[in-house]
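User: Sequence recovery, please. Input:
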């Protein structure tokens, strides 16, 4: 048979599929042998001949065309449908008359299940957390979704591999948010959900490793860096241990509480009663004397002193623990 057979059109459901077979390509050769299944699974939106039957014989363009012949729309993900003999035979009418058909009649019914996966609260939480983590500024914020509400478990089709997320409320310190999730498969939307989720945000901050007393100078062994919930975090919490080493506590602080900048101070270099060397330098002139400190002072502070010899009151700026530079302004 050398003349071309006209193109055949098959209309199924709401879609129109045109399949072309050219008899001249195969002459009067036998088509592939077809062994039907009793049960089958599909992943896409259509049930095709290749889903319910195994075609035996040399692989050819004809075999591929028969495999792709649509029978009917697939059921919803996770559900099953019955494919009847009449539906299969109707699909096979697209095979040209000139092709010999060495296959047995199809079973009266074949049960076909569409593959799917159950989407639960845990996976939704991971998706929302990943979206938030990706869009938060900085890299030291940890995200955890503790609870998901206002949704029912759904079964997604196997081809649903991507998801877009929209969160309506701005996330500052976490809390309850409303999230919209849209799942896509093969470039098409497959499922849309709106859920409520409780989001906790954590930041790595410096906390006390032990009880710290007032006026205790901070050492490295006094500190830990731990994640703390932003809702419980004071605005002046310290994130870098190096910023607090050598400083001292203004108040007592319990173990595992965050260190705050407002609770720390630089230890004074001199305190009331200390005897220091007071110096005055002008050009090549240098004068010094001993004086008693009358008030606590840190480096650069202006403090009051009394000259031990003359008992005259002086003022100067702290240079170090044993030296004050006379202030004559």
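Assistant: Recovered sequence (329 residues):
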């Amino acid at each position: 048979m050398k003349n071309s057979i006209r193109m055949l059109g098959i209309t199924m459901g709401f879609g129109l599929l045109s399949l072309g077979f050219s008899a001249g390509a195969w002459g009067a050769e036998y088509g592939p042998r077809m062994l039907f299944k009793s049960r089958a699974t599909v992943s896409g939106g259509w049930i095709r001949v290749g889903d319910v039957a195994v075609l035996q014989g040399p692989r050819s363009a004809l075999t591929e065309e028969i495999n792709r012949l649509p029978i009917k729309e697939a059921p919803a993900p996770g559900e099953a449908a019955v494919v009847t003999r009449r539906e299969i035979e109707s699909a096979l009418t697209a095979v040209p008359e000139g092709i010999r058909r060495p296959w047995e009649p199809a079973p009266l019914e074949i049960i076909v299940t569409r593959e799917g996966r159950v989407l639960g609260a845990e996976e939704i939480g991971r998706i929302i957390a990943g979206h938030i983590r990706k869009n938060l500024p900085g890299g030291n914020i940890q995200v955890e979704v503790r609870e998901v509400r206002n949704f029912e478990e759904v079964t997604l089709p196997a081809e649903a591999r991507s998801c877009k997320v929209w969160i309506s409320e701005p996330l500052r310190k976490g809390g309850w948010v409303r999230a919209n999730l849209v799942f896509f498969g093969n470039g098409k939307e497959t499922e849309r959900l709106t859920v409520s989720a409780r989001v906790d945000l954590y930041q790595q901050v410096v906390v006390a490793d032990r009880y710290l007393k007032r006026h205790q100078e901070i050492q490295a062994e006094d500190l830990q860096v731990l994640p703390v919930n932003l809702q419980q975090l004071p605005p002046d919490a310290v994130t870098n241990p190096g910023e607090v080493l050598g400083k001292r506590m203004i108040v007592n602080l319990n173990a595992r509480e965050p260190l705050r900048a407002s609770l720390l101070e630089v230890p004074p270099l001199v305190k009331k009663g200390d005897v220091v060397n007071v110096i005055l330098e002008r050009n090549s002139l240098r004068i010094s004397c001993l004086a008693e400190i009358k008030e606590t002072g840190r480096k650069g502070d202006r403090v009051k002193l009394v000259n031990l010899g003359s008992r005259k009151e002086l003022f100067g700026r702290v240079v170090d623990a044993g030296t004050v530079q006379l202030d004559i302004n």
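The radius of gyration is 41 Å.
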